[in-house]
Amino acid sequence: MSPFAATAETDKSNTIIDITPHAHTKLVELRDAETEGAQLGLRLEILSQPGEDFRYDLSFDFFTKAAFTDEVRTINGLKVIIPGKDVESFQGAVIDHSDAQGLLIRNPNKPKAPNVEGLVRDDEVSAQIEAIVSGEVNPALAAHGGFVTFAGHDTEGTAYFTMGGGCHGCSMSRQTMLEGVQTTISAQVPQITKVRDLTDHSTGANPFYS
């Protein structure tokens, strides 16, 4: 368990996630429409796997029956239940509501890297790549609402990534990966000569893979 997650679990004044007034009003309205609404809390869970864009499940559940590993917080009278595995990924996120989009989660966090057997992620080359991704690649992709997550590299000079946000399902993502990410990484890390995209783009908002 990371120190960050441990802090969130032990500090009950840390609500983990924030809720805007408009969203709070809507959630309380939905909760109170449920049978035994006074005993229900909003359960937030991340359904996606590491390396995939976040997919969320929002439901009402009995907060008195929350699992021992769940974190339960009270935000202006509304109980919020978050599985322990998702605490770090929800830290600093905001639940909002609009008439056009309904309930939505604004999350500043990035998905965790996928664990791909055979790839290296804990050596000096990986540290160099991570620094370039956080300092150069992702700030450039952020202008288009996208980001990449480093999954590791093999022993033959290939670095592997997943693409998220606006890059997930985008028809230009192959070009972005090959021309942008590969050029940036290979110019500064001589051990890396090419990159590969592990993203399942068929699940993106604008899928171009069949």
* Helix content, binned percent: 25-40%
Q: What is the N-to-C order of secondary-structure elements (H for helix, E for strand)?
A: HEHEEEEHEEHEEHE
Q: Would you identify the CATH architecture of the largest domain?
A: Sandwich
**Rg result:** 20 Å
Task: Name the CATH homologous superfamily of the largest domain.
Answer: HesB-like domain
Strand fraction: 25-35%
> What name does the CATH topology of the largest domain carry?
Hypothetical Protein Aq_1857, Chain: A
Q: What is the number of domains?
A: 2
Residue-averaged pLDDT: 83
Low-confidence stretches: 1-10, 204-210
Number of helices: 5
Largest sheet: 4 strands, mixed
Question: How would you sum up this structure, described in words?
Answer:
- The chain is of the alpha/beta class and 210 residues long.
- The protein has two domains: 3-106, Hypothetical Protein Aq_1857, Chain: A (Sandwich); 124-203, Fe-S cluster assembly (FSCA) (GMP Synthetase, Chain A, domain 3).
- Helices cover 28% and strands 28% of the residues.
- The strands form three sheets. Strands 3-2-5-4 form a four-stranded mixed sheet.
- The longest helix has 18 residues, at 124-141.
- It starts with a helix and ends in a 13-residue tail after the last strand.
- Mean pLDDT is 83; it is low at 1-10 and 204-210.
